[in-house]
Structure formats: C-alpha cells, structure tokens
Sequence to fold (267 residues):
Amino acid sequence: MPPVKRKPRTYDPALVRAGLIGQVEAVRNAVHGLTPDQLARPSGLPGWDVRHLVVHIAGQIEAVPRLLAEPPPRATAPETDLNTWAVSVAGAAHELDEATRRHAQAYDSAARAVDDAVEELEPVLEQAVRADVLLPHSFGAMRALDFTVTRLLELVVHSDDLTRATGVRVPLVRHALATTVRLLADALAAKAPGASVEVRIPPFAVVQCVAGPRHTRGTPPNVVETDPLTWIRLATGRTDWLKELDAAHLTASGERADLRDHLPVLE
Fold:
C-alpha cells in the first residue's frame, strides 16, 4: 500500500512572530553575558569557537531582513517548502561556514553582531511572517512565513549549542521549541516516507514514517519516543542514537524502530 500523503502542517503567523521575538531576546541576553574565556571555547561545531557560533546566529537573524530587502523572485508560487529546506540545507554548509568567517572578521564584538542583526529585524517583523510574500531563497522562492519558521529552528538549535558550549543556560521559548520539533519530525516523515513506525515527541509531535506494513488500529508495533531536546539533537546530528538509547533518553520498540539509517535529518 502506498504511503498516505500528509497534509502540510500550517504555522500561525502570530505565534511564529512571538516565538521569533522571544528566542532572539533569549539569545541576545545570553550573548551579552559571555566572557572572553567563554567566547574562546570550542562551540562543538567543526572549526568554530563560541564567537564564531554567536556571529553565525547573528547571520541567521539578519537573513530575514536581508532577503526581504532583495528584489522579489520571478516565481509567482513557492518553489521551496519547509521539508525541502530541511533536507537541502546541509548542501549549503560550506557557504555558511565561509559567510560566518567573513562576518566574524567584520566584527570585533560578537554581541554587537547580534545587536545589529536584531536592529535590522525589528522593523520587518510583520512582513517576515506573511504567507503571501515570496523571498528569493537560494533553494528557490520561499514564503516569508516559512523562511521565518526556519529561523526559529536555527535559533533553537544554536541556543542549545550555546548552552552546552558555555554552561550558560539559554532558555528555549515554548513556541520556538515546538515549531522546531515539528519541522524536524515532518522532515523525517518526508525523508523516510511510510507508516510502519510511529515517532512520538510529546507534547509537540507525532508522525509516521518508514516504508513497510501500515498500522491502522491499536498500539503500533513499531514506536519511537523521546523528549523534545533529545529529538532535536538526534535530528541535527548533535548526538548519537545508541548513546541516547543507552541513556534511556529514547525508547524504540519493534523490529523497524531503529531510525539510525534516517538520521540526522539535517545532515
């Protein structure tokens, strides 16, 4: 039986806007409290110290006003949706690394880079969550709302990176966290289509994925369940499946419930 086509998830512009404002502010507050020693620590990402990570975060914030300021794309309909973005973003890793290094050379203060990005973002917040505005993304025309949803993911993932690298807790705003969990869960379902495994990330998401016999009633025979933060780390390659299984941060029951071949989602 072919997999059932899932209806794309929708995101409330007002909640996306609130999540963006809240997570940006959480990052900004944390960054302003970092010491030179903390900024010089390894970020956990290849080749970057924490200063590079902070400058990269600034670039992710600044990307919203920058794309809004560019001429609109020739396309009249979206060419890139959230699932396409999620499974394609790894291909731009080299370009992002180069841009981050250039950005870092332009700033003597990582906190100032974030401040400047926030200053540019604030006047365009309403436009940033419009579903009827297309942005000229390098992957193809993308709705402004969808692109801003990807900024929530970037901010949440890198807030966690900052926390782990510096020991300074960067709070995760609930809606930003929920959006990130759902986006990554949906991308997994798109990357490994099917309905033989149910993935549960309470309280935010449940998706079915992986080709095989479809389950229709009762308790599914193949179930994966984990918490939101563990899921984000698994889906973005920050942690290892067996490590989290051994630590009891993850449960997987059923012969098809091993997702190692499908992770990370953002490779």
Summary: The mean pLDDT is 93. The chain has two domains: 13-176, 192-262. The first helix runs from residue 13 to 32.
